[in-house]
Amino acid sequence: MYLDICEIFYSLQGESTFAGLPCIFIRLSGCNLHCSWCDTDYANHEFQAMSLDHILQQIASCKCSLVEITGGEPLLQKNTAPFISCLVEKGYRVLLETNGSKSIKNIHPGCIKIIDIKCPSSNESDSFLFENFKLLTEQDELKFVIAQRHDYEFTKSIIKNYLVKISPEKIHLSPVFGQIKPELIAKWMLEDNLSARLSLQQHKIIWNPDKRGV
Fold first, then answer.
1. ∠ CA 110-113-118 to the nearest 5 degrees?
2. What pLDDT score was predicted for residue 211?
3. What's the start-to-end Cα distance of the chain, in Å?
4. How many whole angstroms separate alpha carbon 145 and alpha carbon 8?
5. What was the pLDDT predicted at 114?
6. Which backbone phi and psi does 172 adopt, to 5 degrees?
7. Residue 150, Cβ neighbours under 10 Å: how many?
8. DSSP letters of 120-135?
9. Could you give the number of structural domains in the chain?
10. Residues in contact with 171: Cβ distance below 8 Å, sequence separation at least 6, in sequence order
11. Cα torsion for 149, 155, 158, 163, to the nearest 10°?
């Protein structure tokens, strides 16, 4: 089994309910979307084909049980689902960050899916596969990246119409770094008593926001 890998690194989780925890990141290459504010465009161009054994050896050296599979879009690669199953069966706690344009039905139930639903400012808001809502479990999470008021209203509508059974702690509103002030989104959320949480990209606060491998 081989996967096209952009990078593997060990850092602190910067987002989701796991923010602040040590985590191994496995960034897969390739993406089917072209978001206007993408901060990992290099994942489209940089890759190395790595065997399963090579990947497992590399992550074992980190001595960390939390692993995130990210991209790019991880579900573009046919071996992603069996790779996730392998990690879960080896005792890793696995997070999958996906843009929601591909079905999550074949992902191991022990994997926590974090779906990034694209808002209008991304220019990819029509990409979401709505059948994925029916496949969510109680442990899965959703993220909305907000750059403007229109994104917030889009997010509010999705929450109201599709996510009423999802715990607010699993629904994240994340400001586009440097494009909108977090306090503005906080103000909107409080005014609307929105059942969600404001999530900041901690890694961009701790380190230089353009720094890779953190």
1. 170
2. 86
3. 27
4. 24
5. 98
6. -110, 130
7. 13
8. GGGT-TT---GGGGGG
9. 1
10. 141, 142, 144, 159, 163, 195, 196, 197
11. -150
Q: Return the SS3 of 2.
A: strand
Q: Is residue 174 part of a domain?
A: yes
SS3 (DSSP) at 196: coil
What is the mean pLDDT, run by run of 10 residues, along the chain of 214 residues?
Answer: 97 96 98 94 93 96 96 97 98 98 97 98 96 96 98 97 94 96 98 97 90 86
Whether residue 98 is contained in a domain is answered as yes
99 belongs to a structural domain: yes
**Those residues with Cβ within 8 angstroms of residue 41's Cβ, 6 or more apart along the chain or in another chain:** none
Distance CA 97, CA 84 (A): 12
C-alpha distances (whole Å) from 11 to each of 22, 89, 112, 206, 212 are: 6, 23, 19, 11, 10
Dihedral over Cα of 15, 16, 22, 25: its sign: negative
Closest CA to 16 of 90, 79, 84, 93: 93
Res 214: pLDDT: 85
- DSSP type of residue 111: S
* Distance, CA of 47 to CA of 6 (rounded, Å): 4
Which two structure tokens, joined as six digits, stand for 200?
Answer: 């900041």
The answer, as to whether pTM is greater than 0.90, is: yes
Whole-angstrom distance, CA of residue 17 vs CA of residue 55? 25
Q: Could you tell me if 104 and 133 are in contact, meaning their C-beta atoms sit under 8 angstroms apart?
A: no
- Gap between the Cα atoms of 23 and 21, Å rounded: 6
Domain that holds residue 132: 2-206
The single residue listed with the structure tokens 């072209």 is 34
